[in-house]
Design a protein that fits this description.
mainly beta; eight-stranded mixed sheet; five-stranded mixed sheet; 16 strands; about 10% helix; globular; DUF1629 domain-containing protein; Imm11
Length: about 190
C-alpha cells in the first residue's frame, strides 16, 4: 500500500489558529497522539469567516486539523481507531462564529520517516534533532494498517494511505492535496 503526505488547500492564503488562550488543551498536545481528553469544544481564530468556508472538508489550520461533518463521517468509516473528534468553534475578528467543523485528533503516530532516503539538515542547537526537511520518503516497514498517521519526527505532517485517497475521491471531499514521496519544497501531487 502506498502512502502520501496530506496537505490542505483553500481559496485564499489563511490559517485557522487553535486559540490556546481559550482552550483547555494546548495545540501541541493534540499533536502527540494522546487520547481521552475530556474537551467540550476547541476554539479557533481566523481573521474573517469566508462565505465559502463550509464548501471545504478540511481547513488549513495550526493545531488540530479542522474537518467538516462529511470528512468526520469518512474518517470514522476508514480510520475510526486512529482518530477522535471534538466540536470546534471558529471565531473571526468581528466575533462571527462557525460551529460546523470538528477538531481532529489523530491518534496513530508512526516513526515512518526514512532517514536514509530523505534529505534534511540537523538543527544547530541539537545535532541529534532533525531540522529542515527538503525531501521526504517513508519507511514502509514502520507503517501498519492504519489509513492516517502523524509522523513522529514532525507531528504536524500527516501521512495517508492509497485507500484514504480513493475514499476521499469517492466521497467528493474538498480541501486536500496528496504529495508523493520526494521533494518537500516542490512536491509532486497526485492527479
Amino acid at each position: 500500500m502506498k502512502y502520501y503526505r496530506l496537505l490542505e488547500f483553500y481559496k485564499r492564503d489563511v490559517y485557522f489558529y487553535q486559540d490556546d488562550q481559550k482552550n483547555q488543551v494546548k495545540s501541541y498536545e493534540l499533536e502527540s497522539g494522546v487520547s481521552s481528553f475530556s474537551i467540550e469544544s476547541i476554539y479557533y481564530k481566523v481573521d474573517k469567516l469566508d462565505k465559502y468556508v463550509n464548501k471545504y472538508d478540511l481547513l488549513p489550520s495550526v493545531g488540530a486539523p479542522l474537518v467538516s461533518l462529511k470528512m468526520k463521517c469518512f474518517l470514522e468509516e476508514i480510520a475510526n481507531n486512529a482518530c477522535e473528534f471534538f466540536p470546534a468553534i471558529i471565531v473571526d475578528e468581528k466575533g462571527e462564529m462557525n460551529t460546523d467543523f470538528f477538531a481532529l485528533n489523530i491518534l496513530a503516530v508512526s516513526d515512518c520517516f526514512d532517514e536514509q532516503k530523505s534529505e534534511y539538515d540537523m538543527t544547530a542547537n541539537d545535532p541529534k534533532k532533525i531540522g529542515r526537511i527538503t525531501s521526504i520518503y517513508f519507511n514502509y516497514q514502520k507503517l501498519g494498517q492504519e489509513h492516517i498517521y502523524r509522523m513522529s519526527i514532525r507531528p504536524s505532517m500527516i501521512v495517508v494511505s492509497e485507500a484514504f485517497v480513493e475514499g476521499y475521491r469517492k466521497n467528493k471531499l474538498k480541501g486536500l492535496l496528496f504529495a508523493k514521496e520526494g521533494s518537500r519544497l516542490r512536491p509532486e501531487f497526485l492527479d
